[in-house]
Design a protein that fits this description.
The chain has 227 residues and is an alpha/beta fold. It has one domain: Glutaconate Coenzyme A-transferase (3-Layer(aba) Sandwich), CATH 3.40.1080. Helices cover 22% and strands 29% of the residues. The strands form two sheets. Strands 1, 2, 3, 4, 5, 9, 10, 11 and 12 form a nine-stranded mixed β-sheet that branches. A three-stranded antiparallel β-sheet has the order 6-8-7. Strand 7 and strand 8 form a beta hairpin. Helix 6 crosses helix 7.
Length: 227
């Protein structure tokens, strides 16, 4: 019988190696997989590419990922913090110690969705006329200029959901869903931490993400105020 529930963090994080690309769910505090992120920080990996909506949240969750220079590249939509206290990864970027790709939030979401759908690239009007599109292919369609955006995929996706069953079907509470569902489709291996495991299985109307996109589920009750 299919059972994607793992018993500990070591089993959940198995196979993640240096130079991996990792998508991490979360919008503000909702849906951030804090347990998995902290476990990633304890693995002493290097050369990581992190793909997430707000990189500052990861820095706040486990500062060791940036403090110990384990991240080489960040793809994000929001990277600035208060001027009085810039995040560590922001300071590293300014010093040229890591590379940073900043995307409009809708483009970020669509590049991930395209990656999960097997679409290699698409044209978007967003950001045309700004420095974000310098050096990239642009074309006109029906009198409007568009920029080519390539799909985003990753080796791993780390997500948080409220509940799962042994098949890996997921139920997200409120805005926990954010980018998680798309990331699960665009990653080779999806690892999810959840507050609850349903022993009887989720009802069809509860399934927000089918288990076919999930490889491992770890029960990890919330230890802080991140939803």
């Amino acid at each position: 019988m299919i059972n994607k529930v793992v018993g500990d963090l070591a089993a959940a994080m198995a196979g993640i190696q240096s130079d991996a690309s990792i998508m991490i769910s979360g919008f503000s505090n909702a849906g951030v997989p804090t347990t998995l992120v902290r476990a990633l920080g304890a693995m002493n990996l290097t050369g990581l590419t992190l793909i997430m909506n707000a990189a500052r949240r990861i820095d706040e969750c486990d500062a060791s990922l940036f403090n110990d220079r384990r991240v080489d590249h960040v793809i994000t939509t929001a990277f600035r913090g208060p001027e009085a206290a810039p995040a560590n990864f922001e300071q590293q970027w300014k010093r040229g110690e890591l590379s940073l790709e900043i995307l409009p939030q809708g483009t970020f979401a669509e590049r991930i969705r395209a990656g999960g759908a097997g679409i290699p690239a698409f044209f978007s009007p967003t950001a045309v006329g700004t420095s974000l599109v310098e050096g990239r292919e642009q074309r006109d369609f029906n009198g409007q200029t568009y920029v080519l955006e390539e799909a985003l995929t990753a080796d791993f996706a780390l997500l948080r959901a409220q509940k799962a069953d042994r098949h890996g079907n997921l139920f997200f509470r409120g805005t926990q869903a954010n980018f998680g569902s798309a990331m699960a489709t665009a990653a080779r291996t999806t690892i999810v931490e959840v507050a609850e495991i349903s022993e009887t299985g989720l009802r069809p109307e509860e399934i927000h993400l089918p288990g076919i996109y999930v490889q491992r589920v770890l029960q990890a009750p919330r230890q802080d105020q991140i939803a």
